[in-house]
Input
Amino acid sequence: MRMAAFLIGTWAFSFPHQETEITARLKDLGSADVRTVYRAVERLTQLGDAALPALDAHLRQAARPVRPYVELALQEIGAGRSQPDYPKARRHSLKSSDKNAADLLVDLKSRTGLPLSIESLLDEEKLPELSLDLRDATPLEAVDAVCKAGGLTMERDGARFEIYSGGYPDFPKFFYDHYLFRLETYARTRSVSFRKPLRDRLRIDLTLLWDSGISPARLLPARLLEAVDETGKDLIPPPEPAKTDPPAADPESSHPPVPEGTGRDSLEILPPAPKAAKIARLRGVVPVLHPKARVDVTFKNPAAGQTKEAGGFHVTLKAIDRENFALDLFITSKTMKTEELRTRPVVASLRLKGQETPRCVASSGVEEGGLRVRVEFVNVRLQREAGVFRLEEPLRAADIQTFQLTVVTETVERRVPFEFRDVTVR
Amino acid sequence: MRTFPFLCGLALVLGAQDAEVESLVRRLDDDAVDARAEALNALVRLGKKAVPALEKARRGASPELRERIAEILRKIEERERLAVLIKPAARITLQARSRPLREVLEAVGKQAGTPIDLESVPEDENVTVALSKIPFWEALEAVCRANGNVVLDVQGDLVGVAREKYVGLPRHQRDSFAVSLQGIEMTSGGSLDGQERYEEFRARVRVCWEKGVRPWRVTARLAELSDDRGESLILEDDEDRLVSAAQITGDLLCEELEVSASRVPPPEAATLGRLKIEIDCEFALRYSGVTFAGPEGKVGTVARCPELAATLVKWSRNEKGATASLQIRPQQGESDPLNPEEFVVKDKNGKEYAAVVQSAGGGDDEGYLYQFSFPVPAEVEVKELSVRVPVEIHKERLDLDLKGLPLK
Output
């Protein structure tokens, strides 16, 4: 303890201005407001090496509830050192008393670069003016605040965020860096098998959205670190008995790539005690694999039969299936065996002449001597009308201006934290 | 010389039987209703043996008697068909004292004519058990219970055991059939914005039958479900989800079905008030259908029967067999997709090959489009392609009726 006090004192003497902030942020780690806690973690991470002595010292004396956040800040500083190129989410402030939701979203679109699609709002006869005072928010947090104030829904649709009217779904949310975590649905299931004790579990479905500042290659299964109800009951289930089945495949290769901008996972916990109305705390991490090295192959005015070479990959554009809005490609590698190539995430994007970038999905499979890739794209816009989606216009064959295929050759893992407090499961 | 007394004896027996049949036929015209009914039942029980006498009696009979005889002949025919589809239930008798479990189960399987998958039986387990005229499935349960370290495990066409401490499942057994409750799931969920909420009760039952029993379809219906206060958990809108059906193909010996309702007992409930599931094993006694003779040249043609109209859309042969596509339209009302075994090709010797791969699409006004293949060797000439649908069904009902079922 004395040593800790000495370290803090020494460091404080050296950097008096930072010290004031670091002390304040360390105090924030114990806040009852989860946003304040994680904002403090992010700020301490930004301070980086300057915050290390205080964090180290605090780690030794921190009470149990605060300790995970101190550890998280230290871990984030470490991750920042090993991935200096990782782009941190920019923060935005927004104040308005006389703009409607569409105007605010247009403003946010230009400031954040988020691909917001607000066409369906433009059909609205009159949108109310919103009063909003938003400070220090991530891009997704800012959009969510506008949606909440305007009674709007935000959904990810491929590369874009669709905003439409029809009410604001008030799901439990958690914002961190580029990410938005949403708890959307739950299901409590009691299973009676007669041969084993009753199994009682609560599954909570977690949706993860991220902004266009990052492009994860893969999401690994979410890991729960803490789950307690308001009576203090630990909701983390006991480990399942080991199965005799063959071991599961490598989680990295069995968890598919996520080029669509949305990840979904489920958290399985014990149900809260009968007297508990809320889950007091639900905390965990989602390990996200980010591309560390990638090879891009670009076809301009693509045509069947074209080939490209890059980074040891040979890519053949075998066919353009205009009728089904798809491209078929074949990839071989000079350095990787086909089995290894199969585990590499493949992401595709394309631009159509005179149109927005449509949503693209790449699926791959091993074929003799290489990887067969089919890229399907949707050349259609969805409109929501009276609560029902309709096609804006019928499908038609489109001319592709440019097509880019990306093979992620190396990834780096970042553990993205999430935490929800006082979740009511009715 | 020795055969002469035997033949004389046989003639005497047959003569006595003829006399009995003639006497029963005469009693069909008795003034007493009970006597007539008794004679009718006795003649049905006699089966094929009574047919010549009945045919003879029908020729000079009054219209009323002719009708009764026709009814008896129809019932005899139905019994004969059913005998092919439901073999008599096995009755197992054996005594074992510290005998290897594998040996005992093999003996049970042999007596029943339903082989046991002995590879699934642990070699190091013994059992002491005494069975006397016990139905097959009950006998298997008794052996597993007596051993204590295995449970019955029936999958598809394999009857075996799994190493697990014996706990009997809620079940009902009758003759060649057994139904057991495999599990219950009670789910309550919703959206976390508080806008949606739902409940779902699901029960899984496994229906098993002996080898030689050939059901066409098995259905399960959740007839009653109530909590421990007697309150029904079935809502009016649940009708569609209460019933589940499966068509049976090949040599399957079991089928698992799931029925559900849209309410669950409260989380603190320790028991269910009542769970009643009605199981029907259906047997096709008579088929109707259409035939395309020499299907090679019949693409595009339509064949009709009162139940359906079939258009042969495609027919081709290759090394692996024959493939065909048929558009089937029900002639009256809606109908379920057909079972692959209802598509059959015959060779010139009358040998049948049932469809093995099938996909069905449609189900609208145009009916279903079926695509399937038949494992007909390349050298075999196909004489006809038939589609047949059951038009007369016999049902064997098995009820699983459980009261105070513990939820633990």
Notes: Chain A has ten helices and 21 strands. The radius of gyration of chain A is 24 Å. Chain A touches chain B through 28 residues (CB under 8 Å). Residues 2-82 of chain A form a domain with the Leucine-rich Repeat Variant fold (CATH 1.25.10).
